[in-house]
Amino acid sequence: MPPTEPWSPSPGMEFWDYSGSGALEEELELCASWELPYAHAFVPALYLAAFTLGLLGNCLVVRLLAGRRGPRRLADTFVLHLAAADLGLVLTLPLWAAAAALDGNWPFGPELCKLSGFALAASRCAGALLLAGLAADRYLAVARPLAARPLRSPQCARALCWGVWATALLAGLPALVSRDLQPLPGAPGSQCGERPSDALQVLGLLLLVLTCALPLGATLFCYCRLARRLRRTRRPRLGRVPRTPLRIICAVEGAFVGSWLPFATLRAVLHLARLGALPLPCLLLQALRWGLTIATCLAFGHSCANPLIYLLLDRSFRARAWRLAHGLSSVSSRSGDPSADVRGPAENGGRASTASPAQIGL
C-alpha cells in the first residue's frame, strides 16, 4: 500500500494530525505513513457491532436491576452505574463509525465533536472508578465484615457512585475545551481532533494517571489482598465463599483492564512524544499509529463486554433475562385478548431470583 498522509479513523488518532511546530511534527514530515490495511472497512464494522450489542446488553442490565423490587445489593448499585457508563460511550459509536468510514472526515459539526470526546473521557473515568469501588467493597466484605459495616450501607454506595459521576464529569471537561474540528491533512474536510498545545498534552497525561492508572492500581491492590486473605482464611465462621460470583467480578475487572490498558498506555506514549520527552524513530511512529487504531477498537468493544460476561457466567442473570423476554413476548402475543392472564413473578411458583450479575453472596 502506498504511503499516505497521516490518517485519523478513530478518536485516538488525531494526535498525529497536529499542524503546529515541534520535534514530532518535523519527524512526521520526513516519515511516510501507511494506512492500516482495510481499516476503513473493519473499523466502522467493529464500532457498529459494539454499538448494537452494547446498546441491547446494557439496556437489559439497566432494566433488570433498576426495575428490581426490594432492597438492592451493594454490588447491584455498582453494576447498574457501570451499565450507565457503558451506555454513555455506546451512544457515540455511530458517530465514530461514520467518521472512520469517511477516512477521518467528521461531518457532524463541532458541537458533537466536543460532546463525543467528553462522553469518551467521562465514561472511561467512571468505569475505572466504579470498578475500584466494587473491588474495595468486595475486599471489605471479606477482610473487615464487622468494622466496615457502616461503610457498606446502601446510602454510602449511592453517595460513592454519585461522587464517581461528579469526578468523571470533571475529567471530561478538558475534552470540551481541547476538541474541535481540525483540517484533514491531504484531503478536503475536517476531523474531530485536539488543538495543539503543550499544556493540553500535560493535562491529558495527568488525567490518564489520575483517572486510569490510579484506579486500576487500587483495584489490583484490593484483589491481591482479597486473594491472599481467602487463601489464608480457613476459619469455619466465614463459611464457604461462593466462587462463581467472584469469578464474574474478576472477569468484569479483567475485561476492563484488557480493553482500556493498551489504549491508555499508547496514549501516554503519544503525549510524551508530543511533548518531546520521548523521541521516536519512524518505524515506531508507524507502529504506534497502527497500534492505537487497534487499541481504540478494543477499548470501544468493551462497551458490550459486561452484559456478555453476565450472560455467560451468571445463571441467575440468564434466567431473569429469559423471563423478561418471555414475558414481553407473551404480552405482545396476547395483547388483543382482554382475558389474558399475564402472571407476575409471585405467581410463577416463587421462582423469582434474588441474585444479581455481580452478587458475591458474602
From TrEMBL:
Phylogenetic placement of the source organism: Eukaryota, Metazoa, Chordata, Craniata, Vertebrata
Chief subcellular location: membrane
Subcellular location(s) per record: Membrane
Biased composition annotated in UniProt, kind: Polar residues: 351-362
Role summary: Orphan receptor.
PANTHER family according to UniProt: CELL ADHESION MOLECULE, G PROTEIN-COUPLED RECEPTOR 25
Name used for this protein in its record: Probable G-protein coupled receptor 25
Keyword presence, Transmembrane: yes
Native source organism of the sequence: Rhinolophus ferrumequinum
